[in-house]
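As a warm-up, study this chain.
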Amino acid sequence: MAEVRPEGGQMTTTIESQYHFTAEVKSKGKQQNRDGWAMTVGWKLPGSKFDLTLYGQDWAPIDDYEVGDITTIVINQSNLKKDKDGRYASDYFWDLASIELLILDEDGEMVSVIDEIGDMPVQAPPKPDPTPKPTTRTGAADEEPPPNPAALGACHNHAVDFIIHGVLPLPEGRELVSWVRELRDRFYREINQAPLAPLHYCYEHDEERRQGKSGAWGHLFPADGLIHDEDIWCLEMQSN
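Now compare it with the structure written out below.
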């Protein structure tokens, strides 16, 4: 931020069109008088006495961030507010350009999650080879089609989100990068690329249900000698 003194001696402040800063998320929620979100962060515009509040309509960019998270944020200057003359940065609305979560690394330093995980480029499917090659059956059972870059990237993002929010925390003794990659690959192969189960499928027992004469759908659950000694039927719960 620079200060400029015109010929008359009055001091004004040069307003930047973009600011990049680190701040804690102080509050996040729905706007009071309109649709969309409002998020207050622990940072003040130059010359302002109040924490910055950002507004937006699309929840996707801020959906994964919670109160107390430490973030690095980039904002861009937007429209001039009503009845303001533009002399101060707070006279303008500011748009959220980007936001990244910061975490503590092994040295106790705050680093971006993206930097800590490292660049993990998703490989695009290989270009078709114009030269035909002889087919072979060797190792065919272990081969899989080239990954879908968009789907693999989405699985990577889900893996990071699950780690950050404690759903699948980093196991003791594991490195963050290898854990992210394992979750990404498992999400992709076991969930994203898994075939669609038939209607009325029992996901709890991984069994296909069949419809009985009464119209109910179920499958036989064999006796295990531990929880129940006799065969029982697992029936699909019907919603009213």
